[in-house]
Amino acid sequence: MSGVKIRGTGRGLPRGVLTNGQLAQRVDTDGQWIFSRTGIQERRICAGETHAELSAAAARGAMERAGISPEDIGVCIVATVTPDTLVPSAACTLQKTLGLSHDTLCFDLNAACTGFLYALHTAECLLAAAPGKFGLVVGADLISRLLDWSDRGTCILFGDGAGAAVVEWRAEWPSIGAVLGCAGNGEVLRCPARDGHLSMEGRRVFKFALEAAPWCIDQVLARQGITAEEVDFFVFHQANARIIDLAASKYHIPPEKYRKNIQRFGNTSAASIPILLSELEEDGSLRSGSRALLVGFGGGLTWGGCLVEFA
Ligand code: UT7
Fold first, then answer.
1. pTM score above 0.70
2. Which of 12, 79, 121, 124 is deepest in the core (most CB within 10 A)?
3. 153 within ligand 1 shell (Cβ under 6 A)
4. What is the mean pLDDT of residues 61-89?
5. ∠ CA 274-231-208, rounded to 5°
């Protein structure tokens, strides 16, 4: 038995708001269609803010809530597909900005929208080898950088943002028991490494997500030996309100046990789960002892789930 718990969370969001109405002036769509098919009303889009700035804001917030200093961090992982630069990585840039110690393990991780879950699991494994140190796990994406603003099938969905969690590892704490998976597929969702835009077959991704989310929940519950009723809160990747509501209804999860912020932020990729976690911690929904079941899915294709407790 050994694992991590969350000590504190934070978020960084661009100031600029892009409403459905404003989008409808740029591309052939209408606000009501977007809201009824996705649950999105508006999203934040960077206008000058960088990936590094949003990530640093999220990380500082998480460290402040955790009550720790930069030298306490032993592992810093940034889950992202949209860093400012490939080298230095977003995590190395964060090391400099935050003044993390030179012996901190810093690297980026690409698992698209499931990135935060992959990173949380990786941090848990690595911290076992660095007892006494904390992990800084960031999910940050500026998907607006990859969008074709004339493609109404994709540009309506995404927003920019960053979220972060500081985690602590202890030998006597249970593992988050992450279940993670991948089925390589470059047809239904693709972002070229150079020049080009994100492309997606929305209906196929939707169908994949409807299978992946319950699979993750089933696996996490089985691994932890608990029922859905014993989970305090479900935190879903904010991809589409219909996907989230359908998954929640399958397990009869009451509305007070899962929350959506997709109406305000759209799909922020790797940032969506930690942004929501930080809102839930801030409003007191998640506090010491709360156990949240996290569910992610997205490009790769990738998926994952885990049960994480707040310290
Ligand atoms: O983070 C993980 C990554 N992505 C996702 O999770 C996305 C999952 N997929 C989705 O959320 C949905 O598939 C979308 C929101 C992208 C699309 O919704 P949909 O209900 O699956 O629409 P559709 O693609 O099946 O299209 C239905 C109709 C089509 O018109 P016709 O052929 O029936 O006349 C589309 O041309 O809606 C039309 N349409 C639009 N109309 C207005 C597609 N996009 C739009 C739009 N505005 N933005």
1. yes
2. 79
3. yes
4. 98
5. 60
